[in-house]
Amino acid sequence: MKKGLLYYRIPNQTPDWYKFRTVGLTEDEASVYKMSAYEGGIGGSEIPSILNATSDTYRHPAWLYNLKVGRIQYEDIDNENKFWGRLDEDNIAKIWQYCNQADAGYVDNFNNENIRRTCRRVNAYIINPKYIWLFASLDRVIDKGMPRLDTNEPLKDGGILEIKHLNEFIINKFEDKIPIDYKLQVLQYLLVTGFDYAEFAIRSGKMLRIYIIEYDKEMCDAIAEISHGFWYNRVLPARKILAEIQDLIVRNKYEEAEKLTATFHKLEPEPDGSNAYKTFMKEIYQRDIVKVIGTEKDKNNAKLYKYYSEVVKSAEAQKQTFGNLLINSHYLEKAEYLTFGEEKEYSRYYEDSRGIKKLDVKLPYYEIDREKIDQSIAEL
Fold this sequence. Notes:
CATH topology of the domain at 6-40 and 78-215: Lambda Exonuclease, Chain A
Radius of gyration: 28 Å
Number of helices: 13
Distance between the termini: 74 Å
Helix content: 40-55%
Order of helices and strands: EHHHHHHEEEEHHEEHHHHEEEH
CATH architecture of the domain at 6-40 and 78-215: Alpha-Beta Complex
CATH class of the domain at 6-40 and 78-215: Alpha Beta
Strand order of the largest sheet: 2-4-5-6-7
Structural class: alpha+beta
Strand content: 5-15%
């Protein structure tokens, strides 16, 4: 690792551990660990949210923003999954030491007590002063001089070992077998630590597979630039605004608080239609800072939401009606296919491999005549 890195050794799951990861530690709080004050930062597992590279199972950037400004609390309750995850991490790290190939070899080496490589823990958050707003929490560090997995050449500075337990379905979604979330996480760690080599050890079912991730300057530059903007253009200014809002509320200056709240929300990442954003809104809507009067734009959005909600209900009913009419035609004709002149234009009513009846209609969208549809509906 690079010289000059900072190490914060804070016990897991403690109040200071949560504060370090979110709003940071004051001078007095940090002095307990013989460190200087830290205003918080962004961890490797959080970077995919900022880059919009995550699936709906991950947090929305608006959630991360509110977490880092201190508006919502970090909820990371220990559970059975995490308990077994920690045990798996230790076991995988132990077996990794017997690996000299990406997908085999460790069984014989283990049986013969032939350790091929070594790694070690780093029980600390690692911070690079050059990227002070980022922090790294490594599973393991590959020791100096250990052979690379692909060429067997010794690693001059060592490297990073990231450990995960994933199912085959998730792994096979990605061409290089590494989910983009985890790749970005490791790239951030490479950026912070100065390593240029990492291995990603994945246990899937009863198999252990290892993949190489190397320093990518273009990706690491993007991580540094985008995360810097998120932190210094959104989070830190928002913290000051939030403190002012809270002070105004204490002094019963609600009108001024409302104006500042609008500024606070302008700094927040934009809403979208993802499930991640819906989850975030469910978590935060009861914790809003102040109750404000909605704008005309808000009212118009509310009207449109209500209108399209009714449209969807009506459309679903109409879809069911026309579907039933088609199914009836299939039944009367005793046919799986009803064709409409062209080879690729048809209605198909069939039973799938699970024994479920399905209706499949293939028609070019441009041939759908809205006026005729409306007339058909009126005639029903």
